[in-house]
Structures are given as C-alpha cells and as structure tokens.
Amino acid sequence: MVALHTTIAIVLVIALIVRVRIDPVISLVLGSLYLGLASGVGFVGTIEAITTGFGGIMAEVGLLIGFGVLIGSLLHSTGAFRRLVGLLVQRVGSGRLPYALTSMLAVVMPSIYVDVQVVLAAPVARSASPFIGRIGLPVLASALGCGIFAGYVFVIPGLAAISIAGLLDIRLGDWLVYGVVIGLITALVSTLLMRLLFAAGGFWNAETDEELDEAMAEQEAADRDYLTGEAESAHEALARSESEATAAEAAQGVRRLPLAVLMLPILVPLLLIAFGAFAELGGWSNSLIAFLGDANAALFIGLLGAYGLSRASAGLERTNEAMEDGFHTTGEILLITGVGGSLGAVIEATGLDAVLGDLFRADEGAPVVLSILLAWFIAAVLHLAIGSVSVAAITAAGIIAPILDSLTVSPIVIGLAIASGAMFALQVNSNFFWMFKSLLGLSTKGTLKTLTLVTSVASVVSLPLVMAAALVL
User: Fold this and answer.
1) Using CB atoms within 10 A of its CB, is residue 259 exposed (0-12), middle (13-18) or buried (19+)?
2) How confident is the model at residue 231 (pLDDT cuts 50, 70, 90)?
3) Strands annotated E in 5-139
4) What are the backbone dihedrals phi and psi of residue 27, each rounded to the nearest 5 degrees, phi first?
5) Average per-residue pLDDT for the chain
6) Domain of residue 254, residue span
7) Can you say how many angstroms the Cα of residue 431 is from the centroid of all Cα atoms in its chain?
8) Span of the secretion signal (predicted)?
9) Torsion sign, CA atoms 367, 370, 376, 382
10) What does the pLDDT read at residue 242?
11) Per-residue burial over 142-157, b = 16 or more CB atoms within 10 Å of its CB, e = otherwise
C-alpha cells in the first residue's frame, strides 16, 4: 500500500502542476500531506517530516543556492557575461563557434539561472548564425540549449546539480570533477550529433521551423549584407557591436574592468572546492584547506568578490538592484528545493525505503546498470510529466535518497544518473521552452527540433558516461 500511495502522491503532484497549473511549491506540499496521511504517518508525524525535510535540505544547499544565484546576478550587472559571449564569437571562428558556445554555457555559466542565460546568449546565437551558413540557427540553438542544461544538472554551481548533491548527501568537491567532465563531454558530443543531423539536409525547413518578427528579419538582412560584402565584414560588425555596447555602458556609468578579473568570482570558488577535495584524497589536508575548500566558504568568497567587482564596475545603485533581483530568484528556488526535501522526508517516514530497496536490488546480472537505469528513468518520467528540470531532479532524488545505503552503487553515480534523466526532452510544458522559442525566432516545430531533441540526445549521450563513472567510483 505504501508504494501505491507514493505513486498516487507523485501523480497528484504532476496533475496539479500540469493540469490544474498550481505552483510546484503548493503541489509538492499537498502531495507530501496526502502521502503522509494516507500511509499512516499521522498528522503530527507528517508535519514533522515536512518541516524537518525542508530544514535538512536547506542546511545542505540553502546557502550554496543563494550564494550562487547572487554571484550570477552581480556579474550580470557588470556586463561580464555579455562580454564573454561577444569575445567568444570574435575569437573562435564560425566553424568552432557552436562547440565553444556550448562549452562556455556548460562550464562557465551555470552560476546564473537558466532564464538569464538564454536571454544573454540567444541574441548572440541569432546574430552569429548567418556566419555559419544555412543551418547556423538550428545548430547554434541546439548548442545553446544543450550547454545550458548540461551545466544546470551536472556542473557546480548549477542549481539542479547542487540540489541533487544536497539531497543525496554528496560532497560537492566529490561531485565537481565527475560533473564537469560528464557535462562538458555531453554538451560537445550532443552539439556535434545535432550538427551532423542538420547538415544531412531535409530535417530543417526555415519556412516552417523559423518564425521571425520584424526586428529579427531586419537583423537577418544586415547579417546577409555582412556575409556578401555589401556591408562591413563579420568581424567588423561584431567589433562595432562591442563598441556600441561599451558606449552604452559608459553612458550608464558602468566602468569596464578586465574580463579575466570579472570571471574570478566564478573561477576561484571552483578552484578552492577542487583543491580541498584533492587535498583530502591525497591525505595532506588541514583545517585551513578544509575551510577554504568547503563549498559554502568558497562560494561566499566568490560572492564577496562579485559584490566588490560590481560596486567597482556598476556602482552602488546597480549593485543593489542586482542583489534584489538575486534575492527574488533565490527565494523561489529555495522554496521549490525545500519542499522537494519535504517530500523525500515523508517518503522516508512511510518506510518505502524497504520497497524501493527491493526494486533497485538485483540478485544476479548487472545491479549497477539496473540501479543507474532506474534512477535515470524515474527522473526522465518526472520531467516529461512536470516540465521542470529542477523539480524532476529534486523529486527523483527525494524518492531515491532513503534507500541509498541499501544500494551497491556510489551515491555520486545515482546522482549523476538522476541529473542525466532530469534533462530528457524539455518540451511544451516548460516555460523555458516558450522563452527559448521567442528569443531565437523559432516556430513551435523548430523549437521541438532543436531544444526538445537536443536535450533528449544529451540525456541519452550522458547515460553511458554515468555508467563509465560507475567503474571508477
């Protein structure tokens, strides 16, 4: 009966989000209440499980999420990410641009929320697409979507990655190395496969797959001029765009600091976390190294740096606005993450861990492979139903966390499998889908051919990489 009530609770959450369009926070709490009461946990026990589950996950990842979002918001105010994307377009050349773009989004940009990433990168993808050729737009759109979500689920401080690690009690330093490698390889291989698909011909039809507004059409015409020599060259156009952006920033009172300096609040925390993890593995860690390598301390150091750089570059007023924006985003994310932890705590209180332990445990054959596939499948089904990568990842981790001790697989491998499944087939029930469609000038059909397909490809590509990680963990 416990398994039945758990299934009903998850279906209830999905139905409330998808059909009734109730906010995920309310839906998850209602699902938790139903499960606790229906499974015999009782009124008091259910409320205790919800509150302790919320507090437990907040203790694990609350500060990490808050610090990560604020760092991204502050650096956004300095224009650092826009400059980074612009520099990328100018330096790598059109042939390598899709791979450079997806790599940057996967490895460098996860500190900022996915909605902000697509707002920053979509104009670059549109304006650079004519320089690649006829299939430039679908290739760059796919690279953009894949890079954003590979970073979001695999790479610290991507919010889904932090949430999964927190729910499964995985040290971020341990997750970091495997997440970066799997996330980067997934983004690159998926982008290559999509490019080969579009290059084969016949799959992309600009007339039905693109949906330009007037402003975008004018930009397309200008870009064609650049390519045919009727106007300035592509590099001159990009340089002019950068010059205009510099003038606009100067008019707004933004002081341009060196880009390498502006990236330090992202790079320094990652290096500190990695250094602390390697020091512990090597047996030469001490209290100072452990303190600096702690993810909370490292990200707070990054936040201090981002705040100082924002004050120096954008001024006090814009810095305060960036902080307010970051607090607003953080609150929403923390609530969803926290109630995801609540659902996991209620599941644990019902005693479902024994049932799931039997499901995940294989007597013969390949128990590791079976466990990975089940974790991937649970996350993928939840994402298809709910339409939110983060909610699917959090819910899947909450379901599996209670039985981790009974598995023969490393928690990191299970977490990576959840991450892999959680980005499967991002489609029409996601708000991001429609934002992506509008910003890139695609039709619904074109968005399905790019964003939905590339996240499906990336999810499948990353699965054998997770299995390979299981060989060394």
Assistant:
1) middle
2) very low
3) none
4) -60, -45
5) 83
6) 2-470
7) 14
8) none
9) negative
10) 53
11) bbbbbbbbbbbbbbbb
In DSSP terms, 442 is beta-bridged to: 210
Dist CA 372 CA 271 (whole Å):
29
Strand partners, 210: 442
Residue 86 has pLDDT above 80, yes or no: no
Question: What 3 state SS string does 177-208 have?
Answer: HHHHHHHHHHHHHHHHHHHHHHHCCCCCCHHH
Number of Cβ within a 10 Å radius of residue 59: 11
Confidence of residue 250 (pLDDT cuts 50, 70, 90): low
Of 471, 406, 454, the closest CA to residue 102 belongs to 454
Q: What's the length of the chain? A: 473
For the chain, the domain total comes to 1
For residue 165 the two structure tokens come to: 């690690």
HEC per residue, 445-468: HHHHHHHHHHHHHHHHHHHHHHHH
Residue 361's pLDDT band, with cuts at 50, 70 and 90, is: low
Both tokens assigned to 421: 């499944």
Nearest C-alpha neighbor of 98 from the set 122, 123, 132, 130: 132
Residue in the block written with tokens 């773009």: 101
Q: Which amino acid is at 160?
A: A
> How many whole angstroms separate alpha carbon 418 and alpha carbon 187?
17
**By mean pLDDT, which of 21-30, 110-119, 255-264, 463-472 is the weakest?**
110-119
Cis peptide before 123 (omega within 30 of 0): no
